[in-house]
Structures are given as C-alpha cells and as structure tokens.
From TrEMBL:
It is found in: Membrane. This is Amino acid permease-like protein. The keyword Transmembrane applies. The lineage of its organism: Eukaryota, Fungi, Dikarya, Ascomycota, Pezizomycotina. It comes from Chaetomium thermophilum (strain DSM 1495 / CBS 144.50 / IMI 039719) (Thermochaetoides thermophila). One of its GO terms (cellular component) is membrane.
Amino acid sequence: MALSSSEHLDEADKKLEAMGYKPVFKREFSSWSTFSFAMSISGIYGSLISTWVYGLQAGGAAAIMWSWIVGGAGALALAVSLAELSSAYPNAGAMYYTLRFLAPEKHMPLLCWMSGWITLIGTIAGSASTEYATSQMLLGAISIATNSTYKPTVGHVVGAMALLTLIHAGINTLPTLWLTRLTSSYVVLHMTVLVSACVYLLVQTKNKNSLAYAFTDFQPTSGWSPPGFAILFGCLTPAWIMTSADSTARIAEEAKSPALTIPRAIFVASLSTYILGFVFNLVLVLCMGPGGPFPLLNSPSGQPVVELFTQALGRAPAIFFTLCGVIIMNMVAIPGAQAGSRMVFALARDELVPLARMWTRVDVKRGTPILAVWGEPEI
C-alpha cells in the first residue's frame, strides 16, 4: 500500500502541516548550529563595541554596568518567554503567528497583522543598523591604521554599508546546508576572540580602575536630566544586543526537532550573552583609564572601544581586535538577513504583504526563498 505524503514527514513537519502550512524548507540546522545561530544574532563582542557609546555618554562607568544589569535582565526575561512560545508553535512566522492562539478572538486578526508588520519593520531596521555598525567599525580600523589621517565620513559609512548588505544577501542565497556549516563555526571563533581580548586587556593595562569605580563612578555627558533618566539611555545597549531572540524562532522550519532545539538555543544563547556581556563590560570599564568617558568619546575614529584598545594595547593590537570585531559583525549580519528573509516569506505565505506569491517562491535545489532574501535588504 502506498504511503500518504504525511507519512513521509518527520514529527516536526507533521506539526507544521497541522498548523496549516506545507513544509518547503530542508531541515539542516542541528542543535549545535541552531545554538550558534542564536549566539550569532547577539554577537556580543562586536555588538558591544558598536553600542558601548550609549552607556558611556549616559553616565560613564556606572551607567554602563547598571544599564546592562537591569536592561539585560529584562531582555533575558523576554527571551525566556519567547523560548517557551516558540516551543509550542515552531514555524517561521514566530511571534505574530503565536498571537493567533493568545490574543482575544475578536481582536486576533488585527493584532496578528500589527505584530507581523512591526516585527518586519524592526527586522529590516535591525539588519540596517547591523550593517551600519559593521561599516563604522571597519572604517574605524582603517582610521587607526592611518594614524587618524583618514577620518570616516557619513557618506563613506553608508557606501560601505550598501556594499556589505549586498554581500550578505548574496551569501544567504547559498543552500541551507552551507549556511548551517558557516553558522556552526561562529561560536568557537567568537568565544576565542572575546576571551583573548579580555585577557589581553587585563594583562596589558597598567593602571586599572577599581571595582568601586566601575559601579559607582557616574559622569553624565548626554545633557539629559535628571541623571537617573539619562542612565536609561544606556539601556539601548542591551536592547540592541539582546532583544532579537525571536530571530532564532524564524528558522524553526529549517531546524531538526525545532520544538526542542529552538527554545533551548534561545534560552542558552540569551543567558550566555547576558553573562558574557557583563564580563566584557566590566573588563572595558576597568581598563578605560582614569580619564573617564571624555577622552574615549572624543576619539577621531568615532568608536570609544576602538580608542580604548589603542590606548591600552597600542595601535597594532587595536587594529587586530577591531578587525576581529568586523568579522564577528559580519557573522551577525548573515544570520540576521536569513531571519529577515524568513519573516518576509512567512508574512507572504499568509498573504499579509504585497506581491505575496513572489516572496514565497523557494528554490528547490538550494532550499532558499531567493526573492525574499533579496527583497529584505532592498527594502
């Protein structure tokens, strides 16, 4: 007797069919590569280099530390909730689909539509900000290499950003198996760079600040008052780094046993990012020098952490660790673009975006929605 099509499917695909969707992706992401994907979305080393300026401007050392502790804890709580929901409804629509079961029936269509579009806009903005930050860091490294004779302009940053966006979109047209292999290498590289940078900074910095300085020295430079309100701007750092946990949920249709691997990856990666971010922030604050935030904020490169590397380690090591940050930020942008294209695909599948049929076309050989991959960065 011939088997029905559903009998050829594994449990994850059967569950997807039960949700009303036909499986079209290849399930290539293992537990390890899914965890590595989740870690790559945060990119704590490169992302913190890019956003450290917010806490520094808000109030110096104390603002950096306390905004991470408080803001990061809130982001971690959000990630835990997202992990639980992604376990119950593992599909590329992620949170906007989940609202179908959580929202009041009367308001469910509107809330799902709003959630989907807000998430799409946020995903596109997040991808753009990642590309912009990568470009800033790359040009900052060039500025150091030229002894600050080259000073990046906004035009240069935007031009580099556009080029990187096209490169990362091109990489995302590769078969899913290739993307899995690329993603799997991320955690090892990231942890090696992060640990090396922390150890080297602690060894090379002669006049370290005290722990008391790290948690109590408050020097607001943002111009906002009262000072406590200014510290809230420091929470932009954990907000930018730790609030994209649902990006991992968008590859649920490409992961093996997604009801287990996706929530585990989200939780472990978010907790790891919170702890590692605290450690890296503390090391940077201890090694930032007695001059406080002002010398770092006035850096010719426009990157306070890059200036900190230069002052503490010298020009050559600073260039090396900055370029490591550029590499890691590229590895943030690639899975970020993948998650964004899957969001476009999911919304198109439910006919919530214009030209829906076009965005749902999946290349059979590659297992990739090629048009959605190019559409997300073009927007």
